[in-house]
Design goal:
The chain has about 300 residues and is an alpha/beta fold. The chain is built from ten helices and 15 strands.
């Protein structure tokens, strides 16, 4: 099968196309004929080697872990899925490939009204948003500040927080202000003077902060909160030295919750934005765009 591989850590230039063996599913696994792959910032961090302490990588490696595709083969002890099912979720093997293995327990059936690219854009962002909002214990009537509100995770987090009854202030670049507003947040341009601009919008203060941008906003967040309590980042590795929670570790990866949000995405009640799509062979360009960190919504590779 065709796959994108890296044999050494480094920049996007280490990515290259290769022919690899089609994997065989083990117990509890299915093989998925991949149609689309979500490109996530962590893919680039793993490729560069900066995530070795958290995600040790055996080289050569195929990047990616977020897929949408068609079940192609079923391993032992799998009852909930069968060959031909259209699914979305997380892969056990590298996703930048024509085929990937996945645990059946973390795959959801793809609704007919959800196309492949939007299906691939949902699992990581929805799981991450749910997890962080729970870590922050967001409640109705609270004010939540989200840095990076126009990104893939930020897009979903804004909507799920608003659904909880929270007021959301979302930072983004000038070109994404209307987009963030359309999600239900009060939009704000990031950058110098952020503390004063947030205080003008929320004179009583903010109750919690989610940093999904990793663009140096943690110090401003501490100032706004008056300390490090109820601040979580998914993107800034300076978190520990500042005494802030970095959202890492095992994710819940609930197929039931993913199926619920996929239905909402299919019927239009949850907006999932695909910022750009690239063919698998342009994975280098996709990771370059992801590393730059200015994309609206999710970047997706098309494979099928």
């Amino acid at each position: 099968m065709k796959a994108i591989v890296f044999d050494t850590f480094g920049g996007t230039e280490v990515l290259h196309e290769a022919e690899t063996e089609i994997p065989e599913p083990g117990s509890g696994q299915v093989r998925v004929r991949v149609q689309a792959v979500g490109v996530n910032p962590v893919d680039g961090k793993i490729r560069s080697g900066t995530m070795e302490a958290i995600f040790p990588t055996t080289l050569p490696a195929i990047p990616g872990g977020e897929i949408a595709g068609i079940v192609d083969a079923v391993g032992e002890d799998v009852d909930q899925l069968q060959v031909g099912d259209e699914v979305l979720g997380w892969s056990d093997t590298g996703a930048y490939a024509q085929y990937a293995l996945a645990s059946a327990a973390v795959l959801a059936l793809k609704p007919a009204g959800l196309d492949w690219t939007h299906a691939a854009a949902l699992p990581v962002a929805s799981d991450g948003a749910d997890r962080v909002l729970d870590l922050l214990d967001i409640k109705a009537s609270e004010t939540l500040l989200i840095h990076g509100a126009s990104g893939a995770l930020g897009t979903v987090a804004v909507q799920l927080a608003v659904a909880r009854g929270a007021r959301v202030i979302g930072t983004a670049g000038p070109a994404n202000q209307e987009y963030v507003t359309s999600l239900g947040a009060t939009a704000l341009v990031y950058g110098d003077g952020l503390v004063e601009r947030v205080r003008a919008l929320a004179p009583d203060g903010v109750d919690a902060v989610l940093d999904a941008a990793g663009k140096g906003a943690l110090e401003d967040s501490i100032t706004l909160r008056g300390g490090t309590d109820r601040i979580v980042t998914t993107a800034d590795f300076r978190a520990r030295e500042l005494g802030i929670v970095f959202a890492e570790g095992p994710q819940r990866r609930s197929a039931v919750r993913l199926a619920e949000l996929a239905r909402q995405a299919a019927d239009g009640t949850l907006a999932i934005t695909v910022g750009a799509t690239y063919p698998l062979t342009d994975a280098t360009k996709a990771q370059q765009a992801s590393d730059a960190g200015h994309s609206r919504g999710k970047l997706v590779l098309t494979v099928g």
